[in-house]
Specification:
2 domains; Arc Repressor Mutant, subunit A; alpha/beta; single chain; about 40% helix; five-stranded parallel beta sheet
Length: about 230
């Protein structure tokens, strides 16, 4: 069965390109151009993922996302927007978004993110924590929500970016194992160029900062090889 995507977009030319591209990759897509049509379309179509433009007539994408999230707490939602301010990104996540892509965007990147969210929604790697919701795994004392990109510890929540979450997911899939640096670069960035390699260093440093409260969790750099994700039981 084809994965179903509800796509809300008021730019006809862009909408046609995205819809046809997704359909050519094996998705079933229902597209609406009016914000008020989104919720009735969702109830009728019952998609596996929602792709929502933010700037829509009559009702914006953030409000639609909140309405859909109230009906289905775990459905993946991606926002599309020309806005670039940090507060807009944060508003998107507060409105229930799992990912946020700025226009203009690469169709290949969009499709990769859709596949990622659908995989996370269908089956999660790693051991679930007792009492954890679907889409959550334990990393030491932390709970990592792969759908909402959240890392929680003792009531504190750290929101992760898409690439931070992807990197942590890769490491969490290989506890107490070594992950090749080039494999991470290919999986997240699509190539192992020098620029992307330096970006990876930055993201590793960020994750170490997020995980610093639990000394049983450690990202060990193996120079010239990759990273060993040490998680003590």
């Amino acid at each position: 069965m084809k994965p179903k995507i509800l796509y809300i977009e008021d730019e006809p030319y862009l909408g046609k390109i995205v819809k046809e591209s997704l359909e050519s990759r094996g998705f079933e897509v229902r597209m609406e151009t009016d914000g008020l049509a989104a919720l009735p379309a969702y109830r009728e179509f019952r998609p596996q993922l929602c792709l929502l433009d933010v700037m829509l007539p009559k009702k914006d994408g953030f409000a639609i996302g909140q309405d859909i999230r109230a009906l289905e707490p775990n459905i993946p939602i991606i926002y599309l927007t020309a806005k670039s301010q940090t507060e807009d990104v944060l508003k998107g996540f507060r409105s229930g978004g799992n990912d946020y892509i700025r226009k203009p965007f690469s169709l290949e990147e969009l499709i990769a993110r859709i596949h990622n969210l659908l995989q996370l929604a269908q089956g999660q790697p790693g051991p679930p924590r007792a009492g954890a919701s679907a889409g959550e795994i334990a990393i030491g004392r932390y709970t990592f929500n792969l759908i909402r990109y959240e890392l929680r510890l003792d009531g504190n929540v750290q929101k992760l970016s898409h690439r931070e979450a992807e990197l942590l997911r890769i490491l969490a899939e290989h506890p107490n194992q070594t992950v090749q640096r080039r494999d991470i670069l290919q999986r997240i960035w699509g190539d192992d160029s020098f620029f992307n390699s330096r970006n990876l260093d930055v993201y590793i440093k960020k994750l170490r900062g997020y995980l610093r409260e639990d000394h049983t969790v450690e990202i060990i750099t193996l120079k010239g090889v990759g990273y060993h994700f040490s998680v003590c039981p």
